[in-house]
Amino acid sequence: MTLQPEDFWSFYEWLVRPNAFLESALLQGIVLLVLAILLGLIIGYMISAARYGPSEGFYSVARTVRDLVRFDLPGTSARRVMALARLAFKEAIRRKVLFVVGLFVAGLLLAGWYLNPESDDPARLYISFVLTATNYLILALALFISAFSLPADIKSKTIYTIVTKPVRPTEIVLGRMLGFVAVGTMMLVPMGLASYLFVTRGLRHNHLEVTDVRELSNGRLEGETDYVRGHKHAFSIDPDSGGLGLTDMVRGHRHVVTRADDGTFTIGPATGGLRARIPSYGQVQFYDRQGDKKDTGIDVGQEKVQEGYASAGIARLVGVTSGPRRVEHGYIEGGSLGLAEFLFSDVTPDRYEDGLPLDMSIRAYRSYKGDIVTGIRGSITMKHPSKAISSNPITFIVDEYTVDEKILPLSIEGTDGNETRMLNVFDDLVDENGQLLVQIRCLDRSQYLGVTQSGVYLRPGENSFAWNLTKAYLSIWLQMTMIVAFGVMFSTFLSGPVAMVATAACVLLGFSAEQVYDTRHYIDSGIERGGGPIESVVRILRQDAMTTQLDVDDLAGKVIKTVDAGIVYSLDAVATALPNLPKMVSTAEYAASGFDIFGALLARHAAATLGYCILAFLVSYFFLKSREIAA
Question: For tag attachment on the chain, is the N or C end more exposed, with fewer CB atoms within 10 Å?
Answer without folding.
Answer: C
